[in-house]
Amino acid sequence: MLAAMLLWGSWCFLANAEAVWPVRLGIALAQALASGAMTWGLARVVALAMAGIGQRPGMRWLVPLGVVAVTGSGLWLLHRTLGTPALARTIAPPIVVAWSYCQWLAWQASRHRSLPAGASDVERPAS
Fold it and tell me: pLDDT, tens digit, for every residue of 82-106?
């Protein structure tokens, strides 16, 4: 979570180089806090959703899509409200990485859920 805060807060600061320093600092801090909260929330929401509905067809794709749509919209709204000069350049990379992270979490959840109780990856039959 701290890594996401540092990475995306720094990215926001650099992506908005044309803004004055205090504005850059403010939106970078907002991005860092939002990224921390989103990273924390993404893992929990994907895990809960996959535990409840993960075995249904298409859920491995729909759960991350829904989660990223909500968090990406929140990020867009935050930066739109703050008047971020380079809005698309600021939020596109975090949204793409969030999508990849959610896909990985969903894959992990579906993979571990499909194993029989007590089985490890080593005991799983090759397909």
Answer: 999 999 999 999 999 999 999 999 8
The pTM assigned to this predicted structure is 0.80
Q: Nearest CA to 75 among 43, 45, 33?
A: 33
d(CA 65, CA 67): 6
